[in-house]
Amino acid sequence: MTSPERFDELSAALADGVRRTDGLIGLVLLGSASDEASARRDEWSDHDFFAITEHGRGSRLRPDLSWLPDPERVVLTAREGEIGFAAVYDDGHVFEFAYSDAAELAGALAGDATVVVDDAEGTTARLIAESRERAAAGDRFDPMNDTRLVLVKLLIGVGRVRRGEVLNGGLFIRQWAVQQLVRAIRGRFADVSTSLRDTIDPMRRFERDFPEWAGRIADASARPAEDAARAIFALTREILEPGWSDFPSRAADAVAARLGW
To answer: Rounded to whole angstroms, how far apart are CA atoms 196 and 201?
Structure first.
């Protein structure tokens, strides 16, 4: 468990590390690590952040992570793509961060964010402003299309399970179909979603806005793959179809018939 005091100490030490490292010009604390969302922190909160380098220096600087706080307590680091990193400390605390120049984050999305370190030109503040604009523009749901995709993912997933591809089919069922169902619910019942929801990831804090449905979807997903698919299919119809003329009822019937349900 990371205490509030330890969390704040790590945030301060990150800022110090960025300020004293040649080539690093910016630090942005994201999500619950930000000042804006500090009330959401609990024992499982980690540090999400952007560490911004001078233009064009990202690839040369990335091999060096010695600027992270308490490097002797880091038990692992790992790469996620070209600019993504994770670090785990001996107490289980996690850092997840992008380590790059602003240009490499040109498509980034940001919600809650606190710019802690910036250069004189405001490079980091400008990056976050643009990232927030992109997140706001993308924070839209199309429940009709999302519902159709639930049916597609379930049909493909069950087909692969029956073919013997249980791992891949399960991914379609428990991940892709569930993600689309969550999006469809948020779009269909937009007035229920609260300000706690994550504008970047609709799955985050879904349980707080739709506790009963979230619990039932989680229970369904915990079943063996095809049983999970059938339960998710039933929930899709139960939750979304009544009173909604745009529900793809004919397509749902076709999927059920094809799968012998």
So the answer is: 12
